[in-house]
Amino acid sequence: MINVISVMKYTGALLASMLLLGSSVATVQAPEVLVQETTDKITSILRVEQDKIKAEPGRLLEIVDTIVAPHFDFERMSSWVLGKYWRKASADEKKRFAQEFRTLLVRTYAKALNDNFDKQIDMLAPRKRKDGKQVTVRTEIQQSGGFPIPISYKMHMKEGAWKIFDVSVDGISLVANYRSSFAKEIRKDGLEKLIARLADRNQPAKAANTAK
């Protein structure tokens, strides 16, 4: 005989899980909305905190690292930027490189944002891949008396949220640009030397954050 109570419990649990799954899918933020809201949030904070940022340089990195960095897929960016050298690297080398590369990217992006916090940023129509797994969110920073600067964000779905894995400024990919320069350095001096150089280059940023 079929145990009706067991069937009802199983059916109820299945329906509940389906509802929860449907709810989580429904609440996934569209990539263009994510970029728009994050951009609006951080530029509004930068406008208010300019005096503090000038007095405490580490504050800028803190703001960007808190608000923007969680939306980046630094692991994918690190593996792509090193290419074949990532596959050959040890677990420790991967970890240290990813940490230094993250700091470098946050510092670079923070400066770009702070240089343009008072300018109008327009959202353009996103370009989606046919399979829906990737999307490019396009924006333009308006320049008074000049052409706008296009900034595009390549994004993919990871762990139920859209994550940025590359940023292009005026048609130049940030990750591709670093990939080329890093490959030359690794061929010349090795991965360890590259990591050491990045760590040294990032010291002012880390010191500013520690000094707060």
Keywords:
212 residues, alpha+beta, Nuclear Transport Factor 2, Chain: A, six-stranded antiparallel β-sheet, 6 strands, 62% helix, 16% strand, globular, disordered N terminus
Mean pLDDT: 84
Question: Which range best describes the helical content: under 10%, 10-25%, 25-40%, 40-55%, 55-70% or over 70%?
Answer: 55-70%
Tally of discrete structural domains: 1
Known CATH architecture: Roll
Structural class: alpha+beta
Radius of gyration: 21 Å
CATH homology superfamily name: Tgt2/MlaC
State the CATH topology: Nuclear Transport Factor 2, Chain: A
Multimeric state: single chain
Question: What does the overall shape look like?
Answer: globular
SSE string, helices as H and strands as E: HHHHHHHEEEEEEHH
pLDDT < 50 runs, ≥5 residues: 1-26
Q: Hey, roughly how much beta strand do the residues contain?
A: 15-25%
| Total number of helices | 9
Could you describe the largest sheet, including whether it forms a barrel? Answer: 6 strands, antiparallel
